[in-house]
């Protein structure tokens, strides 16, 4: 029997999600990766599932793929998310629906199904990616929909940690600052760097390393780990 851990990663086709897939494969994990545009896998320890993570059918297909190919789920990384920066009164109903679908539905449906599997196993770990903007709003970076959705996930993380602690299931989150990823054009990097007390943006590896730490920290649960260049501490 293969005893390597099995990890599900959402939003896995690019950016932090793709880096997370690479890192955990290199550490001997078996990986189920999902995103709208993800390509089929030819790697034995990597299964890909294309679909909209906000759709409960996609969530079920991802869970089914993990169980069919690997027989268990040890960790779920809720990485999928979108950020729309607009003044509050400029948000449209379509913006609200899109953010709610990816950030909230995309967390809820797959986490609920993963926790059901983990309950039967007697162990498991949920890691969700939030944003430091939830606690530390920045003038000139309008972010109400991000705070509304990701702030809910931060609160839900603590609630899950307490509800399922006695079942051997941990729940944690990583709260990034602004990270060098395909989301941010290179010409914006200098201005974005100045929003952090450390004076530079984070690297995708900073977030992946935080996920790796949390997945190997059995005494840590209910933690919102800030990887934000000091933003949450103040200016």
UniProtKB/TrEMBL annotation:
InterPro entries: NAD(P)-bd_dom_sf, SDR_fam. The keyword Oxidoreductase applies. GO terms for molecular function: oxidoreductase activity. Keywords: Oxidoreductase. It comes from the Bacteria. Belongs to the short-chain dehydrogenases/reductases (SDR) family. This is SDR family NAD(P)-dependent oxidoreductase. It comes from Aquirhabdus parva.
